[in-house]
Amino acid sequence: MQSQIVCHGCRNVLLYPRGAPSVCCVVCHAVTSTAPPPGDDTSVPTAQSQNVTVVVENPMTVDAKGKLVSNVVVGVTTGGKK
Fold it and tell me: Which of 5, 57, 77, 81 has its CA 20 to 30 A from that of 45?
């Protein structure tokens, strides 16, 4: 099961495995605690009202000319119930 939270650094929506104490943003590298603040659950967006940006950063590779190549994939989904 996955949960989501808004990064406190860049405000992107982050997906993380449920039960993780914190999550590191691959965009800005900020570490966001997953524990909700007491009495405030506004930091967890609902899927039906938010777009979700997912960034996957794989290890860099070396091309045929010996240059480092980034392997980053970005996906955006629109919220909504199915």
Answer: 57
pLDDT of residue 49: 52
Domain-located, residue 58: no
pLDDT, residue 42, reads 54
Q: Is residue 80 part of a domain?
A: no
Three-class SS state of 14: strand
Dihedral pair phi/psi, residue 57, rounded to 5°? -115, 110
Report the domain count for the chain: 1
Q: Are 35 and 60 in contact (CB under 8 A)?
A: no
- Which residues fall within 8 angstroms of residue 19, CB to CB, at 6 or more apart? none
pTM: 0.44
| Strand blocks (E) in the chain | 2-6, 13-17, 22-24, 31-33, 51-62, 68-78
